[in-house]
């Protein structure tokens, strides 16, 4: 074997070993996710709504969005249980600048997905408020479990 090739492979092996087994300098603090901004909501009839959302998802741990509804703006933005909202999981994106997404909210099983970034199976009531939060993956290295971590709340919109 060529000496230069051997030295390259050997040094790569040592570097990889130190990186994988010797790295103890990691953060145990969860990453902060940026909340989305709700731009508009349109009633399309038959309990079908379209929401225009501006958001960015540059993080590797990004998983999607969760929508909450409530009788007041405060209840939509601060639900009693953050797990009770309806989720929308988007494909991972490498885009870091804000992007406008179109989400569809519809309780039916026949989606109209043309031009829609995400579909949320939920029923909204006119006159209630909605808010969204970003979902990030949180991994616990001590017991190898994972869960979702949610961002701060977006602004709230009233359902027409």
Describe this structure as you would to a colleague.
The chain has helices at 3-22, 73-77; strands spanning 37-45, 48-55, 62-70, 86-88, 99-105, 118-120, 129-140, 145-150, 157-158. With 160 residues, it is α+β, with helices and mostly antiparallel strands. It has a single domain (37-159), classed as Immunoglobulin-like (Sandwich), CATH 2.60.40. The strands form two sheets. Strands 3, 4, 7, 8 and 9 form a five-stranded antiparallel sheet that branches. Strands 1-2-5-6 form a four-stranded mixed sheet, with no helix packed on it.
Pattern of helices and strands: HEEEHEEEEEE
The whole-angstrom Rg is 21 Å
Estimate percent helicity. Answer: 10-25%
Largest sheet: 5 strands, antiparallel
Give me the CATH architecture, please: Sandwich
Mean pLDDT: 78
The outline comes out as globular
Low-confidence stretches: none
Number of helices: 2
The class by helix and strand makeup works out as: alpha+beta
Whole-Å distance between the termini? 73 Å
SSE inventory with pairings:
Blueprint lengths: L2 H20 L14 E9 L2 E8 L6 E9 L2 H5 L8 E3 L10 E7 L12 E3 L8 E12 L4 E6 L6 E2 L2
Parallel strand pairs: 5-6
Antiparallel strand pairs: 1-2, 2-5, 3-4, 3-7, 7-8, 7-9
Protein name: Lipoprotein
Organism: Leptospira bourretii
């Amino acid at each position: 074997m060529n000496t230069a090739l051997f030295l390259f492979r050997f040094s790569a092996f040592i570097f990889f070993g130190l990186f994988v087994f010797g790295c103890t300098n990691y953060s145990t603090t969860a990453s902060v996710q940026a909340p989305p901004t709700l731009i508009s909501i349109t009633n399309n009839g038959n309990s079908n709504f379209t929401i225009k959302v501006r958001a960015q998802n540059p993080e590797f741990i990004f998983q999607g969005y969760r929508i909450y509804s409530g009788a007041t703006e405060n209840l939509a933005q601060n639900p009693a249980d953050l797990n009770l909202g309806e989720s929308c999981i988007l494909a991972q994106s490498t885009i870091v600048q804000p992007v406008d997404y179109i989400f569809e909210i519809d309780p039916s099983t026949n989606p109209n997905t043309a031009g829609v970034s995400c579909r949320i199976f939920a029923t909204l009531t006119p006159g209630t408020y909605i808010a969204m939060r970003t979902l990030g993956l949180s991994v616990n290295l001590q017991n190898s479990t994972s869960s979702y971590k949610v961002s701060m709340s977006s602004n709230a919109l009233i359902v027409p």
